[in-house]
Structures are given as structure tokens and as C-alpha cells.
Structure prediction request, 250 residues.
Amino acid sequence: MARGPILALFLALALTIPAGPRSAVAQAALTADLDNHLIAITTGFAGADVLLFGTTDGPGDVVVVVKGPVDSVDVVRKERVAGIWINRKSLTFQNVPAIYMTASSKPIRDLLPEPERALYQLGLENVRMVPVAPEDPELGAFSAALIRTKQASGLFSAQPARILFIGERLFRVNLRVPSTVPTGTYLAEVYLVRDGKIVGAQTTPLVISKIGFGADIYDFAHRHGAAYGVIAVLVALFAGWLAHLAFRRR
Prediction:
């Protein structure tokens, strides 16, 4: 569905549906969705833009967090020894999201107090990445290096994207998914904020998957690793033989 009709539909809803009572459940205060719940990674994938849009039951601010499957990540520090860079020390972090992107209508620090931000893991400083050695004296340096690396690859947002309101109830934001994104199921968490409190919340999924010939190769490599390795070696040998013939003819 085109984005224009989607926005027109939600604008009509925002103008015609009366605001619900303040005693209604939190989910009723907020309605949000994505224009596309599936991002297909094909050959030459260069990233994608996803539109998140929705309505609220009245004035307020909106905060969005997009985060992906968590995994363990090893952060390695290299040092130069005798002119050669070698790995000198590493620290493993658990519960690291593959992606952590935020968007907000106003700076998150201005909208919510620290206890609320920590509870909902809003902001990079509140993401609960767990080090396996919390007593390590260099924990801060390794944690900062992990965040810098993720930001450099576009997987962690350095600054929240700006959520735009059309009137008091309809909002939208464009989210950029980088080309380096891993496959998996991600969650877009949307929060409605009033007077320093979260009064509404909704979560919607975003699936990122490989399709086409590249996906078939990826799946075969993971299901039949040994056979894939043998085929890769044979292909490399064949390519080298063809190159050798081409040079001999010159």
C-alpha cells in the first residue's frame, strides 16, 4: 500500500474518532503501525527506509525504540607489539541487541525522569548489556568501544530520529535500516508520554530476511557447512585454473 493513502486514512481516523476516557487501558491511548513489516535483503541491498505512523487519543509526546535479537558480543582491544597488531584483551557482553534505534518528538531526557528511562531502557545508557566480568577495571572503556563500533556500522543510533506530528494526534517518523543489519525479527516499541509518565504503549514486529538466490546460498551454508566448504574450495580452484589458461594464451 502506498504511503499517501495510509497517512490519509490515519489522518481521517485522528479527526473522527473521539478521545477515549482517561481510565481506558494504556493500549487504547495509542495506535501505531509500520508501512512494511518485512524488509527483504537481496543481492546489492543498500539499506531501507521504514515509515512508522500512528495516532494518539489526545495531546502528548511519542518515543519509539527499535531493537533486535540479543546476542553475546566480544569486544577486543588490539595493541601493537614489535610492529604487529595483536589481540591483547577481550571482554564479552551478553544481551546486546543487534540494532538499537530511537526516535522521539522531543529529547527523551526532557520527557521522562531517569527511573522511567531506565525501566523502559530508553537511551543507550539504559540498554542492559551485561558484561561477563562486571568487576573489570576497564569495563567503561570496553562498553564505550562496543557502542562506538555499533554506531559506526549504523546499528546503534547516535541521535534519535525526529517524530513529526500532524495536528495533535497523528504522528510519523522515517527510520533508516542500515545495509549491515543482520536478519531476524525486530520490535518497534512505541510509547505515549504525558506529564513525565508513559500512559500508552504498543509493540509491532519488523522482520528482516534474506530472499532469492543469495538466501538459498546462505541457508545451504548454514545447514550443510562441510559441503559448502568443499564446494567453495572447488569453485576457487576452478576459477584459478581458468585464470591460468587466460594468462597462458596471452
